[in-house]
Structure formats: structure tokens, C-alpha cells
Amino acid sequence: MSGNSEMPRTPEELAAFMDELSFEPTATPQEEAALLDSLPPAGSAVMVVRSLRLPLELDQAVATAARSAEVPKTTWIRQAIEMALAVQAEDDQPISRAEALRALTLLRPARHVA
Asked: Which of the four pLDDT bands, split at 50, 70 and 90, describes residue 71?
């Protein structure tokens, strides 16, 4: 039923609709046990599926980083989010651009040995 015109409007149409319904047979005890066994253990973490849009270049960079880390892209993205949240949660205080530049000028350049 995709439109309102197909919805039953009278008791007779409703009765005809109900008569045409079919139901799947009830699961056997073995099927029910197999279904319950396929569920995650009680108390395990609940995973939520999110959809996000990434620019092509960013998605390719994520794919490259995930391959080099030998993990799936979803794992790499989840770990990146976890790291970002951990950094944010460590009472990180924002500093001004001037303070950041001042701190950077005090750093010594790295010496690369060829």
C-alpha cells in the first residue's frame, strides 16, 4: 500500500484487507534458540550506525590511513573520533593564535640526518 487511495475506507474494505493478510509461521524452538544465540551477549556495547558525507579526497585519505593501519575504514574513523574526544576531554584550554605563534617560535628546527 503506497498511497492513501489504497487504504481501506469502509468496514467492508477493511475486512477484505484483513482477509488478504498473510503471516509468517511461528518460529520453531530451534529457530528461536538460533536467533537468540546470534544476538550479542547481554551487557555488550551497543553500536549505532551513522551516515556521514565526506569529500572524496578526505574519504580517500581515510582509506589510505586505514589500509596502512591494517584496519577497516569504520574502525579507523571510530578510533579517530575516540582520540579527538579524549584530547578534548583532558581539560584542554584554548589559547590565542598569538600565544601559539610565540610558542612555535621557541621550538628548535628538527635536524634530519641523511
From this structure: very high
